[in-house]
Please model this.
Amino acid sequence: MKSKSMLTSLFMLAAIPLAISSAFAAEAAKDHKASPEAKYLAGAGAGAGKLEMYQSTDPNGPAMTKAEFDAGRQLYFDRCAGCHGVLRKGATGKALLPGPMQKLGTDSLKVLIGYGTAGGMPGFETSNEMTAAEVDMMARYIQHPAPTPPEWGLKEMKASWKLLVPVDKRPTKQMNKLNLDNIFSVTLRDSGELAIIDGDSKKIVTILKTGFAVHITRFSKSGRYLYTTGRDGLINLIDLWMETPQTVATIRTGSDARSIDTSKYKGFEDKIAIAGSYWPPAYVFMDGFTLEPKKVVSTRGYTYDEQEYHPEPRVASIVSSHIKPEFVVNVKETGKILLVDYSDLKNLKTTEIEAERFLHDGGWDSSKRYFMVAANMRNTVSVVDTKAGKLAANVKVGVKPHPGRGANWNDKKFGPVWATGHLGDETVAVIGTDPDKHKANAWKVVRSLKNHGNGSLFIKTHPKSKNLWVDAALSPETELRQSVSVFDLNNLDKPAVVMNLAKEAGIAEGRVTHPEYNKAGDEVWFSVWGPKTKESAIVVMDDKTRKVKTVIKDKRLVTPTGKFNLYNTVQDVY
Ligand code: DHE
Model:
């Protein structure tokens, strides 16, 4: 067998790097360990792996039994599709088509999959993500044509739709005593559940079953309904007015999904829900009160720049405008931002904006006119002016920006700004957002702050706070991923104070992530995201004193990640 280093060079010469390139991930490949960032991009897998699909009988591919092929398919969807795409035609990672894979052959592929590549793909065997037998299976699997998961149109959606409690059977007033504005919906990622926590008492109100590896929560404008999507495309609609909040409708909108939101514009409050899917690449409008699907729109098409057809342009973040009856739909692989007018679904008007490829997550500026979205593999934040319906700017930032929804404040020197941390470096980019009164600073990086580590996922402040909190949850170093930086917004020339919140919570294994404020803006909540079988917690910090106020521990809090305060999420306060 050829030597490992020879094979790696051969692979690179063949120009088929298997995954994203990044200095950070390359580092990881060097020491043959999976970087947390590479694992994050590979994701938790989705529902597509579980669906019945065509099995290849390509005579040029190596032999596989049906059982092996099916297991390979599941493993591929769980570990590889996040980067290489469901169809293996390339997404953030490169294409893995049967021809070139057959040329490399099983032995070479086993080394590459097992040990990783300098291009940034983790070593799946060295990091114990796959056994030797699984690596062998995957090496053979990718030499066969990629099976295509089924399409999922209105008919399939309708068949999956369950209206558990019709509107006329629901309460006509709030039946519990919860201060709904201050509840937190907490993603319990690996148990496929969410916890509703009362922000005032810090008590768990209820735990509800959701989709697989549930991803985000959004709320209806009135604050009555909670929407969540699992990675498997299962959406839950939860009525917060019930004595104990309860799921009143569910639907499968696809087999791989990440985003959901609802109409916020005057006159349309709560009425229309929208969900975006990775597979099939599409978004769907639903009745906001029942989840009845109304209209599906495909995002397949041409990349904005090279105008090359892409079969799988995934829907990343979706946000709901406060100033127009519009959803902002961000299409990852084609780099297009769609402003979709929902006021007339029969005669749908969409403004298609050329932005940048690999759009991911983002949030509004403080005026809620501009939407700022990270094109993370292009080290860019794209800014769309939703009032004018135009791209305002593509701002070059650090390595792989990852803002969550970002953070807004009125900077003493530069006026209104919005900030993002980065996956691939230690900086926080602060961008001027006020072209009217601070034109010289608009859409420029006016400050670059130093975070305590790279691998930052989320950043947050609040209009009533003088603090900016930043995590480094995917840092390869334990101390750093368990810590957060807190900057003083009144003195940003001063270095951040760094504190290890996992230690404060008494948790040895776990990463600290996703700051989220309470409604009053005087507490900030962090997840201490432990392994599935070990303890996790939520740490509530007193924002003023920067001291721990409460640690919420409960054996039901399995792998808490995102937390969504109702008021701040509805009003887009961050
Ligand atoms: Fe997320 C938001 C996609 C992995 C926690 N994540 C988003 C959004 C997208 C996305 C498109 C924006 C949704 C919106 O605003 O409408 N996330 C992906 C992926 O494709 C990726 C990289 C791999 C995967 O297969 O899923 C991925 N995400 C993760 C995680 O591993 C995280 C850290 C833990 C978890 O719970 O799974 C994670 N993502 C989050 C959170 C948000 C999010 C908490 C919402 C942030 C907010 O404050 O709004």
The longest strand covers residues 272-279. Residues 40-41, 43-44, 82, 187, 189, 215-216, 231, 258-259, 316-318, 360-361, 404-405, 457, 514, 561-562 surround heme D (CB under 6 Å).
